[in-house]
Write a structure and sequence with these properties.
Length: 104
């Protein structure tokens, strides 16, 4: 649970690492990533941190960009998951059987 600015910033860094190298769907890391995104989305400080206004605005903007990137990532993953459920062949259209290429 994110309760303070330090935990919030640590969570932002963790999300950045996950976005740079997304975990495989269904893995424990994937579930941790999803939980972290939910925590970031729901975190609201009780009081704005006592920092320079520009620093806080910059942190808020960075958090919003990461939220948008995370939402887009999750949407792409869901779209790919749905598409693969209905595709009789692999993602690139390859068949899953013996090939007849190159045979007379």
């Amino acid at each position: 649970m994110i309760r303070d600015r330090q935990a919030f910033e640590a969570a932002l860094e963790a999300v950045t690492r996950y976005l740079d190298a997304p975990p495989e769907p269904g893995t424990p890391e994937d579930r941790a990533f999803g939980e972290l995104l939910k925590e970031l989305e729901s975190y609201r400080p009780a009081q704005p941190p006592r920092t320079e206004p520009d620093e806080f605005v910059e942190l808020q903007a960075r958090a919003e960009v990461l939220r948008e990137q995370a939402a887009a990532f999750l949407q792409r993953r869901e779209t790919e998951r749905e598409a693969s459920r209905f595709a009789p062949f692999g993602a690139a259209g390859e068949a899953s059987g013996p090939s007849t290429r190159g045979k007379p």
